[in-house]
Design a protein that fits this description.
6-stranded parallel sheet; 10 strands; TIM Barrel; 347 residues; alpha/beta; two-stranded parallel ribbon
């Protein structure tokens, strides 16, 4: 991301009047290695390959804001690895996670995770420290740090099915686990910001597991922890929440948690999201990422893009797909989104 692109994204996120709609795509290891023809292991563990991958993608699509920009992730492995979750690697796919056999009654015996020392987090911090000067000298900026959310992290520790059972069968212990995960998330975001430095002005929080619960469970097991994360950072930071599972139970509550931007699934239509949020939050979406983004033709992508722009009307919008860029999305379809936005009458 170039500095002027960040200013454009930030203005849209903070809903400044007269801001043109930007095109921003969340890109990471599910898409980039396959698109560029490199192995996932090289992408994760070779800093030169990682740097070159980002520079190549930025050069290929100069009009697209790639978000969060220079993201040094290892699939979804960073946060759960600090809790002892086993991580498995392959050459041509993202890592797999195996949840830890653990009794919630024994949480007091679990050492508090430290993202500066535990799991893969220190390796990511080392990459940022080693590469940031090279990134800045090339004319780019690093404005956003990123983390998986508390429920997402807990689901890797417990397993998704077991975690859903925990909410019902062991609610007090589950709240304690979520408290541990929330502290980890805040510490992890702060550690990244400290290493990168003063260019950081926002964060991306990804937590699809929030979409697996109803409104009552959202209020008890999600909202307080999401708000605690948002409250831990300056109010002028850009706070982006990603959930491409479901936002049906929590949509109106997300601005109250403190988020500025929602990247969500196309399964909640743009018109419904706009009506329920009523301008209180910028929407980032929501061209269908698989059926259209990956499997559609450029003409179909352009038509879907125009539909999103029409349906959004005057609601604050950052054009994107309904989630991260999925593996296999072709370059022609990304360019089709960019052209359709450029040709659409500006609001």
């Amino acid at each position: 991301m170039r500095p002027e692109q960040w200013q454009h994204f930030k203005a849209a996120a903070k809903r400044l009047p007269g801001t043109p709609v930007p095109l921003a795509l969340i890109v990471d290891s599910p898409w980039m290695p396959g698109h560029l023809g490199i192995s996932h292991k090289d992408y994760y563990f070779n800093s030169d390959v990682w740097f070159d991958a980002h520079r190549r993608v930025i050069g290929e699509f100069p009009d697209v804001i790639f978000f969060p920009s220079w993201w040094a992730e290892i699939g979804m492995a960073a946060e759960p690895s600090t809790l002892g979750v086993r991580i498995r690697f392959w050459d041509h796919q993202t890592p797999g996670e195996e949840h830890t056999p653990f009794r919630l009654e024994d949480l007091d015996e679990l050492a508090p995770p430290d993202p500066r020392k535990d799991g893969f987090c220190p390796l990511i911090l080392h990459r940022y420290a080693a590469m940031k000067t090279r990134i800045f000298n090339a004319g780019f900026t690093m404005p956003v740090v990123a983390a998986r959310g508390p429920l997402c992290t807990a689901s890797f520790f417990r397993g998704v099915t077991q975690l859903m059972m925990d909410l019902i069968e062991q609610p007090e212990e589950t709240l304690r686990l979520l408290d541990i995960c929330t502290t980890l998330v805040i510490d992890w975001l702060k550690a990244q910001a400290e290493v990168i430095g003063g260019s950081v002005e926002g964060f991306l929080l990804l937590d699809d597991i929030v979409g697996f619960v109803g409104r009552d469970h959202y209020e008890e097991f999600a909202h307080p922890f999401l708000k605690r994360i948002c409250d831990a950072f300056p109010p002028d930071w850009v706070k982006v929440y990603h959930n491409d599972a479901s936002v049906a139970a929590c949509l109106e509550r997300l601005p109250d948690a403190g988020f500025d931007v929602l990247n969500w699934s196309h399964l909640t239509p743009m018109t419904e999201a706009c009506a329920r949020l009523a301008g209180r939050m910028t929407l980032m979406g929501n061209v269908p990422p698989l059926d259209v983004g990956v499997r559609g033709t450029p003409d179909e992508v352009a038509a879907a893009t125009r539909s999103v722009l029409r349906d959004a009307g005057n609601h604050p919008l950052i054009l994107s797909v309904g989630g991260g860029v999925s593996p296999g999305m072709p370059a022609a379809n990304i360019r089709a989104m960019s052209r359709a936005l450029e040709e659409f009458p500006r609001r």
